[in-house]
Design brief:
This protein has a single domain, classed as Rossmann fold. The chain is of the alpha/beta class. β7, α9 and β8 form a beta-alpha-beta unit. The protein contains 11 helices and 8 strands. The protein is globular and about 50 Å long. Helices cover 44% and strands 18% of the residues. An 8-stranded mixed β-sheet has the order 1-2-4-3-5-6-7-8, with helices on both faces.
C-alpha cells in the first residue's frame, strides 16, 4: 500500500523547519544527521507508515529548512528545541523517535531536555567522540578535516571525513543495477549543497557534544542505542557502544552499515518497531 506524503513547515526562532509526513497512528519522528535531510528516510518511512504517523524533517540550515540570517555554529540545544517544537506542533505525542548519526545526537538532546515529549528514543550510531576513553586521535582527525576544508575545499575535506569515519566503504553492497529514481537524485543533490554548511558550522561543535548521561539514565523516556551489524570498529559504532555502557544497557544491532535504514529498510523498520513496542 502506498501512503501519500504531506509537507509542511514550522516556524522556530531563527529558522523555518521543513517536514514531511505520511501514514497514520502514533507519531514517529525521524531525525537525519550531518548534511543529510528528510529524503534519506524515504524507504524507511514507507515501511513504517502502515502503523505510524511518520514525520521526517530537514534540520535547520539543511536543504529546505532555511535560516533567517547568516549561518552560525550549530548547537545541539537549538536542534533539540527544534525537534521539540515539531512534536508539539504535530501533536499526538509523546513521540517515538529515531535519530541516526548526528540526528541521534539531536535525539539525545531532545530526550534529556524535553523528556515529556518522547516515549522511546532509538539513537542509531551517535558520533559523540567525547564518550570514547581517549578521543584525542579522533578530535585531531576532525581538526585536520576542518583545516583541509578551509585550505582545499569541501571535496577534499569530505574525502578525509568519509575515510576517517569508515564510511568510504559503506554502500558497496548496494551497487545499483539501474539508475536511481528522481527523488533519490534530488536528495543527493540537496545533500551535496549542504556539505559546506556542515563542514564550516557542524563538524567541530557536533563532534564535541556530550549527552547528559545522568538525565538519560532517569528511565523516562526509554533510550535504546542502535549500532550497525556491519560497522564494528568504525567511530560511530564505538561511540554508540560507549554510550550504551554508560547507560547500563546493551546496544541494539540493526542490519547493514551506518545507513542501514536505506539498504535494509524493511528489516530495519521491523527491528525499530520491536524497539518501540517494548517501551
Amino acid at each position: 500500500m502506498t501512503f501519500p506524503s504531506k509537507t509542511g513547515a514550522v516556524k522556530v526562532p531563527g529558522a523555518n523547519i521543513y517536514y514531511e509526513t505520511k501514514g497514520s497512528g502514533p507519531l514517529v519522528l525521524l531525525i537525519p544527521g550531518g548534511p543529510t535531510d528528510a529524503g534519506i528516510f524515504a524507504e524507511l518511512s514507507a515501511h513504517l507508515a502502515d502503523r505510524y504517523t511518520v514525520v521526517a524533517y530537514d534540520p535547520r540550515g539543511n536543504s529546505r529548512s532555511t535560516l533567517d540570517g547568516q549561518p552560525d555554529d550549530q548547537n545541539l540545544d537549538t536542534h533539540g528545541n527544534d525537534a521539540a517544537r515539531l512534536i508539539e506542533t504535530l501533536g499526538n505525542g509523546p513521540a517515538f523517535v529515531l535519530g541516526s548519526s548526528g540526528g541521534a545526537q539531536i535525539g539525545l538532546n531532545l530526550a534529556a531536555r524535553h523528556p515529556a515529549l518522547v516515549d522511546t528514543l532509538v539513537a542509531h550510531e551517535p558520533p559523540c567522540l567525547m564518550l570514547l576513553p581517549d578521543p584525542s586521535e579522533e578530535l585531531a582527525g576532525n581538526q585536520a578535516i576542518y583545516n583541509t576544508y578551509h585550505k582545499e575545499g569541501a571535496e577534499a575535506a569530505m574525502q578525509k571525513f568519509m575515510a576517517m569515519a569508515g564510511l568510504d566503504e559503506d554502500g558497496a553492497e548496494e551497487a545499483p543495477q539501474s539508475p536511481p529514481p528522481p527523488e533519490a537524485l534530488e536528495t543527493f543533490e540537496r545533500i551535496i549543497a549542504n556539505v559546506d554548511y556542515f563542514l564550516a558550522h557542524g563538524l567541530m561543535p557536533l563532534s564535541q557534544y556530550q549527552p547528559d548521561v545522568d538525565a538519560l539514565r532517569a528511565g523516562s523516556p526509554r533510550i535504546v542505542i542502535g549500532v550497525g551489524a556491519d560497522t564494528a570498529g568504525q567511530i560511530a559504532h564505538r561511540t554508540g557502544v560507549a554510550l550504551a555502557e554508560k547507560l547500563g544497557t546493551e546496544p541494539l544491532h540493526f542490519p547493514g552499515d551506518h545507513s542501514g535504514y536505506r539498504q535494509h529498510a524493511e528489516n530495519f523498520a521491523k527491528i525499530l518497531h520491536q524497539a518501540f513496542a517494548q517501551g
